[in-house]
Amino acid sequence: MAMKLVYFDLRGKAEVLRLMLHVAGQEFDDCPGGVNKADWDSQLLFGQLPLLIDGDRKIVQSGAIARYLASKLNLCGSTEDDKLLCDQLYEGAEDVFQALWPACTKYRGGSPEALEKVLAEGGNVHKYLTRFNAILEGKKFFLGETFSYADLALYNVLTLSSAIDVNNYIAPNFPNIKKHFDAVEAHPKIDAYNKSGKRRPPFEPFTF
Question: Residue limits of the GST N-terminal domain (predicted)?
Fold first, then answer.
């Protein structure tokens, strides 16, 4: 039986999970647009999507789902140290998202000025990306030549919204991240997903 991923018809908290499933070649039912959360409430531990259904397992919380898939799909390296590093990098990418999201959503008080502030040197997004750039020095992927869900986590954050311009912001300021971004995007399964027409569009800043 194929896995089922339940989420709204946007990238949001489910996109990194979709990326993982596509990279692994895992068959799954990507619930189409029009998902009514109320239809799933009885299966949601905290009343929130995404929800992954894998056989009898019903898993919520995007981080828990990501770690479950990483282990099941062999996307977290081969050693305990690899897994620990991937977990830390995944959470670091989530910190980038948490710093970026309020600055580019109107309902969270976002504005062009707020976005400019977090992206500028000394801003929270800039601080995290500086660390990621240093970690990637001399590496193709975070685990060297081994592709992992940590790579997808950072790639996902950089593609969730058009707020971050990879060519005009990332490339000149964080060259190691740009090389990493290009390597992830060149992965045959990612390339196929991006060209398939199945991937939802990125979020446009200040639209809600």
Answer: 1-77
Burial 56-85 (b: 16+ CB within 10 A, else e): eebbbbbeebbbbbbeeeebbbeeeebbeb
Q: How confident is the model at residue 52 (pLDDT cuts 50, 70, 90)?
A: very high
Q: Which of 61, 49, 150, 164 is nearest to 103 (CA)?
A: 164
Q: What is the pLDDT of residue 24?
A: 97
CATH of 80-187 among 3.30.565.10, 1.20.1050.10, 1.10.3720.10, 1.20.120.1200: 1.20.1050.10
Higher-scoring residue by pLDDT: 36, 161: 161
Whether 125 contacts 99, CB under 8 Å = yes
